[in-house]
Amino acid sequence: MHGYFYGSILDGLMDTVAAQGARVVAIQAREAGFFKAMADEKFSSQVAWDHLDALVVAVTTTDYTYLRDFSASGKPVITLYAAPTGLDCPTVVPDNASGISAAVDHLVGHGHSDIVFAGRRPANGDDEIRYAAFCAAMQAHGLVAPEPVVVPWTTEERYDGAVAVRRLRERDRMPTAVVACTDATAMAVIEALTEDGLDVPEDVAVVGFDDIAAAAEYRPPLTSVSQSFNLAGVTAGSLAMRALRGEHVETGLHAIPVTFVVRESCGCRGGTDDDVTDRGSLETVSLPFIDQLGAALYGDEELPSAQHPGLRLAVQRLVTLFAETVRANDVGPADRSDLDTAEKAAADALRRAVATSPYPVNALVALRGLAEAVAHHLAPGDWRAATAVLQCAADVATRALRFYQQHDSAVVLNQHVDVQRRHYRISTDLVRRNGSNPRTLTWLADTGVRTASLALWNEVGELRLVGVFPGDENGRELDEPCDVRSFPALLSAADELDPRELTIVLPVDFDGNEHGFMSLTGAFDVMGEAVFERVNHWAVLLSVALEQDRALERLRVSEERYALAAEAANDGMSDWDLSTGTVFYSARWKALLGYADDELDSTPDEWLDRIHPADRGTFDRALDHLVSGIEQSLEIEYRLRTSNGSYRWMTTNVLSVCGPDGRAIRLVGSMTDVTERKELEDRLRNDAHYDPLTGLPNRALFLERLERTIVRTRRDPEYMFAVVFMDLDGFKVVNDSLGHQVGDELLIEVAHRLSAGLRAGDTVSRFGGDEFVLLLDDVSEVATLPDVVRRLLTEISVPVVLTEGTRAVSAAAGIAVSASGYTSADEYLRDADTAMYRAKAHGPGSVVMFDGAMHARAVARLQLESALDQGIALEQFELYYQPIVHLDTRRIVGLEALIRWNHPERGLVPPNDFLPVAEATGQTRQIGQWTIVQACRQIAEWLDTVPDFSDVTVSVNLSNRQFWDPELMPTLLSVLKRYDVPASSLIFEVTEGVIMHNQDVAVSFLRQLRDEGVEFQIDDFGTGHSSLSALHELPVSALKIDRSFIQRMKTSSRSRELVGLMITMGGRFGLTVIAEGVETEDEATALAELGCPLVQGYLFSRPVPAPEATRLLLAQADEAVPAPLDVVR
């Protein structure tokens, strides 16, 4: 939005609309800074739209949606130099076709037929139109337009004509003439041709397009097609005003005329004497210049009437002088006395004209313009004449202003200096600021800007009005919401603005940083490039100042955040300048050591000399690596002496700042007191390796020591050790009955006795609960190990005085020795554990040495446990049913459900082979639940299919774990409900030992089940330890005499009497008596004689699968019961 091109457009546009009472708002569509041609990013902001009645736009600077949306509001859109795609609107363009046609006609008139078009890459719309016009003009002369050549150019307006010349050289012959799409392209081709040894126009004639300012002064002067950018602005303004008045304006192209300007690059030469004398009067040049010179000398001030004659005289003498200079140039060297006289007269007249002017230096620019106009009028295209006239203008100006300077130099010299000083102050104010806020726009004072406003984006993307000029006399910043379409708000005061004033809206964006918009209103010289460069410069500096504010704010927030973080983290800060040998220690750094802020010097020794001697070497090595540049950071823990002489643990983090040689020049660090953390780590480390109750090594530490011992055996085959696994007997009873506190006392005493009974090299550890494991080091005689361990067990068994009285405890122990040659600690623990369980089976105080057979049994047991898990998961179990019959009638009154395991490899496995293992591992819980479910399901089926089955019961055995399982009651009730089975159909069998384990709780539970209708029977009666009083209290319905008593009746009269007593006692207690294991008729007869009502055994039936039991029940229902012996066979 500056310079000759945009300035001329704006000048014409402003003249046109001002005459009709309107004014112009110029919106810059590029970020501030250097202008970049052909920029990819298009302007799309709707800034100032609420104030605009029409839009005149260079279409390449905006995108289609910008134009479409403005046009959709019903307001006219006029575009310049390129028609937008997809939008019908008036577009002002130069008459490219006639200009190119005139160029081709002129070259053909010179006799050229081999003419090439030189385009640009990248090309714009004008380039393409001009090439099409070139082809049409060539065709009109019966010539074929050859392929064009292209000149690459960059956004910095740099052209590489050598590329085009190389392409011309590749042809069969060089062309004789070139028509270039622009003057800049033509000049690049001329330069490249000259460097290639060709002469322009002797070898190749060249014509350009645009007639830029440099064309006339180029060597040779460039023949070109002149277009008026001012007229383009006038045309666009006229179209816009017509549309606003409601007149119909045709869409499409509106061409402005162009002029073919002949100079020398086409082959033409300068004019003759006759041409000079025949070019008409110079009044058309001199008359307008009188006003121009007056405006230059007096600006906005009213021209004093007394100065009018002086101005006319000065202009008249100047025009005469310049005309004589042209004629002298045409006729060659001559007597210069007449020219000197004319020059002195012109200088004298000029001196008097500027005598009262406040801006005499402006005469320089005006005088140059008059000289160019006279030269162009009298000798168009004659660069030698133009040069002579310009030199003459410089000479006369020097005479006039030198004379003027001698009389009043202050006015002349200070004018320019004052302007420069003002803009220098503005620039420095924006950069240096001196405490001022650039947002308030107070820095615009003395700039010629009458009003201004500034709106910036905030952090959430809202535009806020932050400053206006002139504004608050105190320079306070605003903060008001501002819609981008209504910015700048000062435009609403249209009645206060001169239509000749221009409002410029600039994006305050630079180097990718988008801040907002600034508007400037004033009487700007749109033709002066310096004006727009200056305001762009302000926008750049303002953007930099705002970005600096952002950076400072971010820095402030960062510093505040860092300070708060450092304070919250209790970090002490240090900054070591290695070049000066001084260290800054923060107040917190000193406080960590117990010092006040003014108590320590700024020397490194205050730090380094306090490091614990044991840590100093490690610290110095790490510091050397940091200083030498080997490392860039350091994190280290060490002890530092405090003010009271004690040491505290510190963690220091240091970052280095390196110089050009890679060595550190500065070390910046933080220090944190981690003493409490270190002490906690020590406690955790101790807890990780030692039992918190007894203080003995725990499992982890024991395994570490055992692993080291195993490694020693590899180095020394003669070395032996032993692992002893101990488990206390009866500890659970003490813990449960007397409480955990008493149990802990007992464990502590046992740990003390074991530790006291071992050598210094041995290890005693507690694995948890009541398990103690010993590592006996350097065993010389394996045979003596059992005696050593028994001695320890004897020590343990001595009664212990506890809070709740004196208690004795025993233990069993298993021993594994290193002779086995294992390589892992777990293998030794496994063997010692296996041996310990064998010892517990032998009784309290037993000691067992591990042997291979134990391992084999242990492996077999593990395999069985694994197989049981799989069996449970795959439901490989099956219930068999053994009838319980009435001895007199031999009719079935009940069935006992007995579980069998259908092992896929071993076949049918009896319960005695797997239930003990399942009971020890807890697997009986899942097996027992499955048994209850299957038994109830079968009962439900029999109730549906077997007549009178409601008189028959099914009994299920409960193991110890299952009886005490808290889920037994809810599981049972849920299954009974699921299969709709009456509780009276199901009976549970338990042994005496299960009940007597905790008689009171057992009795309570049995009563709960009886209340639900479930009966209990005591299985294997006579083998347990129940008493008569206990039996009398138990809510059970029957006793089952163990088969061992039945089998001994034939050989032992005492056994027969004992069975009789059991039957009698049961009858006296109201209990049904069932004899188990009846295998012979003799046993049945004896039992009948003793009055036993119910029996069960192989004599009547073996346990049979459910289908076989169903057959027996159905046969009995038909009263066709076969003999029991036939059934079991």
Describe what you observe in this structure.
The protein has 1129 residues and is α/β, with parallel strands linked by helices. It folds into seven domains: 88 residues, no CATH class; 139 residues, Rossmann fold, CATH 3.40.50.2300; 144 residues, no CATH class; 121 residues, 2-Layer Sandwich (Beta-Lactamase), CATH 3.30.450.40; 107 residues, PAS domain (Beta-Lactamase), CATH 3.30.450.20; 161 residues, 2-Layer Sandwich (Alpha-Beta Plaits), CATH 3.30.70; 265 residues, EAL domain (TIM Barrel, Alpha-Beta Barrel), CATH 3.20.20.450. It is built from 36 helices and 38 strands. The chain has an eight-stranded mixed barrel with strand order 29-30-32-33-34-35-36-37, surrounded by four helices. Strand 29 and strand 30 form a beta hairpin. Helix 10 crosses helix 12, helix 13 runs parallel beside helix 14 and helix 26 runs parallel beside helix 28. The radius of gyration is 58 Å and the shape is elongated. The C terminus is likely disordered.
Short précis:
With 1129 residues, the protein is of the alpha/beta class.
Keywords:
alpha/beta, Rossmann fold, 7 domains, eight-stranded mixed beta barrel, six-stranded mixed sheet, 36 helices
Shape summary: elongated
In the predicted model, the low-confidence regions spanning at least 5 consecutive residues are 271-280, 403-417, 1120-1129
Question: Any idea how many domains?
Answer: 7
The CATH architecture category of the largest domain equals Alpha-Beta Barrel
Strand residue content: 15-25%
Identify the CATH homologous superfamily of the largest domain.
EAL domain
Count of discrete alpha- or pi-helical segments spanning 4 or more residues: 36
Helix percent band:
40-55%
